[in-house]
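Hi all, posting the design record for the shared folder.

TITLE: backbone redesign
STEP: 1 of 1
STRUCTURE INPUT:
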């Protein structure tokens, strides 16, 4: 049996992730012989394998800011951090190295501007995602609400001015549905589309491939928002869509009587992980 395998365009690391990992590696190299302790609060990117590798090299990933020692080095994750946490760390003589994705920083800036201009701020995104938590904290002093889907709008009354910012990895379809719903609530609506262009391009490429293949395999962290959205989008087109973190999670029964396989990966998925999935399938069939 011979299978045709195609990898979707735009699969794998985005600019923001590449940049953050370069910053992490450069920081490790710079402070390697200086006995400096390097910390990151949470995962620098949503990929367990990558985080484990960086941990082996010397970066300490912690869950609480209290675990970061005074006088150490701190790398801000790609998703950004609330400003008050950064200020607390600086007050403890901790050196800040900012690996926040520039597109996420843009969302922060838009949120601050809308807040200052008196808009009721709508943040479209996952309430628990670190990026959204960061955006919220850049909008302090104004009224805001995080909206995940259209039904969340039921609890919002009429507003004079509504400003919108978007988690960078959201799907355009979800954003359009929510904005349409907002037109019934607000007199004036200003939408700042802060979705990363690469996210949209990756989603479009996955959709195109999903239409042409018998099965789609989406590779990336289960806690990665953009990878999860990628799998959801693909599954709506091709029901035989599977989200895996690496080749070890592949099941050969998925490939029974299959002629063509499509593979795509999220923004925080190393190219190597995608190629390992391809190689595993080739070796099995």
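Okay, here is what came back for every position:
SEQUENCE:
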């Amino acid at each position: 049996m011979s299978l045709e395998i195609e990898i979707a365009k735009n699969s794998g690391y985005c600019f923001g992730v590449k940049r953050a990992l370069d910053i992490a590696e450069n920081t490790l190299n710079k402070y390697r012989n200086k006995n400096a302790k390097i910390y990151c609060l949470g995962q620098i990117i949503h990929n367990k394998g990558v985080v484990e590798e960086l941990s082996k090299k010397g970066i300490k990933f912690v869950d609480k800011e209290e675990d970061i020692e005074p006088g150490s080095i701190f790398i801000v994750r790609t998703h950004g951090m609330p400003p008050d946490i950064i200020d607390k760390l600086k007050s403890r003589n901790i050196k800040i190295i900012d690996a926040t994705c520039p597109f996420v920083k843009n969302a922060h800036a838009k949120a601050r501007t809308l807040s200052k201009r008196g808009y009721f701020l709508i943040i479209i995104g996952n309430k628990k995602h670190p990026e959204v938590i960061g955006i919220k904290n850049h909008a302090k002093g104004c009224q805001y609400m995080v909206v995940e889907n259209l039904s969340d709008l039921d609890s919002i009354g009429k507003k004079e001015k509504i400003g919108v910012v978007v988690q960078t990895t959201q799907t355009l379809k979800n954003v359009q549905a929510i904005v349409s719903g907002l037109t019934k609530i607000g007199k004036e609506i200003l939408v700042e589309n802060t979705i990363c262009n690469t996210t949209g391009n990756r989603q479009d490429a996955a959709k195109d491939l999903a239409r042409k293949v018998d099965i789609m395999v989406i590779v990336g962290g289960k806690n990665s928002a953009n990878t999860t959205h990628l799998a959801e989008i693909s599954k709506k087109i091709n029901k035989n869509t599977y989200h895996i973190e690496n080749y070890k999670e592949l099941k050969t029964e998925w490939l029974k009587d299959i002629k063509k396989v499509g593979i795509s990966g999220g923004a925080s998925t190393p190219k190597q992980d995608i190629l390992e999935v391809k190689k595993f399938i080739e070796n099995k069939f």
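COMMENT: The two ends are 6 Å apart (CA to CA).
Let me know if anyone wants the other runs.
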